[in-house]
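This part of the workshop introduces the protein records we will be handling. The structure tokens are whole numbers drawn from a learned vocabulary of backbone shapes. The record below serves as our worked example for the rest of this section.

===
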Amino acid sequence: MTLTNRHRHNDGGNILRFWIVSAAVCLFALFVLIQLGPTVQKYLATIV
């Protein structure tokens, strides 16, 4: 009950934090894809 009250009280901060976390996750996933891109292509080439 206290958790929901706290969320309701600080709604703007939670939304901002949610967007920051989402952007960070997307950037991290993009970075991983860019780093692993050539490796994945080589791996797929060996399978095919």
User: Anything to note?
Assistant: The CA atoms of residues 6 and 32 lie 35 Å apart. The helical segments are 2-9, 11-47. DSSP finds two helices and no strands in the chain.
